[in-house]
Amino acid sequence: MKICSIQQPYPYTPDEAPAAVQFVIDELNSCDETIDLIVTPEYTNCPTKFPPGESLPFAIAHTPELVEAAVNAAKRCHAVVALSFCAEVNGVYRNTTRIYDTNGNVAGDYYKQQLTEKEPAARQVDNSYALDYLPPAIVEVDGVRYGFVTCYDAYYEEYIEHLAYRRPDVVLVCSHQRGERFDVLEFLNCSLAFHTNAFVVRSSVGMGEGITSGGCTMVVDPSGKILANAKSQNGKLICDVEDIHWKYQRTDSFKGAMINNDWFIEKGRTPWSYRPAGSSVRLDDRRMPYPRICAHRGFSQVAPENTLPAFGAAIALGADEIEFDLWQTRDGVPVVMHDPTLERVSNGSGDITEKTLAELKALDFGGKFDPAFAGLKIATFEEVLKRFPRQAIFNIHIKSSGTDDIDRDYLRKIVQLIRDYDCLNHVYITGRADLMEAMLEVAPEIPRCMGAGPDPSKMDVVEKAIKYQCAKLQFMKPYLNKEMVEKAHANGIVCNVFWSDDPAETAEYLALGVDTILSNHYWQNAQVVHPQLLS
User: Fold this and answer.
1) Which domain holds residue 219?
2) Does residue 285 form part of some domain?
3) pTM of the model
C-alpha cells in the first residue's frame, strides 16, 4: 500500500487560513493513481484560531470545494481518502474524520472522542455524543480495518487499549497538535502503533522551518518503528508499506512461541488494577448536567437503606447521584449507616461508634427491612467505592456525635480512600458547619455541600455555604424559598433539597430552581427529573 499523508502549513492568522485550505485542495488534486491511502490533518477546513463565532462560518464556506477534492481524489486514484474536517452531521457540526472508499462513497465517520475543554465553544462543534458510551470506531474498506485517534485522543491510554481490542490494521491520527515537541510526538505515535499492533498514519500541520514542535506527519509500523517522518516539511509524505496487515510478533515468554504483540499484552490484563472505565462510568460532578435526582440512602424504597443492594438498584436504574451516611467505628473504619444507634436497621443495639467493624459485621442489616434480605452485612465505605467507582456521583454525609471536634485524621482516611478508588471527581462531602470548616482545611479540592444543620429554621444555610466556600448546599424542606435559591445561584452554589418522595412536589422544587432532588422513592421521582426515562 502506498500511503500519502498531507502536512498542511499552519496559518497563524485567519487571513492566512484560506491559503492553507487551498494548499490541501491542491495536494489532493495532484495525487495520482499510484496512491492507495490519502490522509489529511484535523480541522482541514478551519485550520487556525478564529475570533469567537467565526470558526464555523469559515468551515462551512470552505467545505464544498474541499470535499469535492477529496471525493475526486478517491475516484481518480482509486484510493481510500480520510478527510478530517468540521462536518455537518444531522444539523450539528462535529470534529469528524470521514472515510471515502475507492469509489468516492462515504464508508464511515469517526467523531473525535476526547475534545479539549475549550474546543466545543471555540470551534462551535457538538460534543453531545462524547458524553455517553461510544466504543472506538472501526471503518473497514476492502478488507483493511481503519481505527482513529484524533489529536487529543492520543493521550488517553485507556481509549487506545480499547481501540487495540477492536483489532485495527491502520490507525489514522489526524491532528492539529502545534505546541508538542517532535520527540514527544514521535514517542506518542510509536507507542500507539506498538500497543494497537497497527500501522499508524499521522497527518498534522507544519509550524514552519526551524520550529521543532507540531508537524511530524509520519508513518509508523506495528513494532513502533518510524518508517517516514515529515517533521517540519509541508506537503505530501509518501511511504510504501509492503503488507498493511502485518503484525509485530514477539515471544510469549523467554524462548517461547511467537505471538502477536497485542495478544501478549492482553493475556496479562488485570482489570481490577485500572482506573474505572467503560460503559458503566458516568460523567464527573463538574460535567454532569442538572437537574439531577439523588437516591437518598440508595433506592431505599426497594432495598434496605444505605446498603450495597440499595445503591446497586439505584445505579442500575441510572441514578445521577446516591446519598449515604458515614460513621466511624471504634477501630477507626468508616461504615455506611444513618442512625447513631443500631436498633432501627439491625438486630444489634447500642451506639455504632462503640462497636468494632468485626462486631458490626456479625449483625444482620437486612432482615428488619424484609426477611428476603436477612443476613445482609453492613457496608464499609471502601466496599462502596470498590463496587461502584465512578458509576454515580456520591453525596457523602459524614456523621459525628456533634460534641467533639471533627477528627482530621479520620477525614484524611476518607479522602485517601476516595483517591485510592479514583473517585475524586465523583464525590462531594455534605455536613454541618464544623465539618465544612474541617474539610476546607484537610482537602479543599473536594467539593463541599453545606447541610441545613440541626436548626434549619434559622434559614442561614446560604450564608454558611458562602462562608465555607461550598460548591453546593442542601436545603431541608420546608425551609427554603425562591429568594434563597436565587442567592445561592448568584454565588455559584448548586442547590439540593432534602427530600421529596412525591412527584408533584418534586416538580414544584424543580420550578423553584432546585438543582438536585434527594428522594427515597427514586424511580417515581426520577421520571419527573428526567422525563426521557418514559420515552
Assistant:
1) 2-267
2) no
3) 0.87
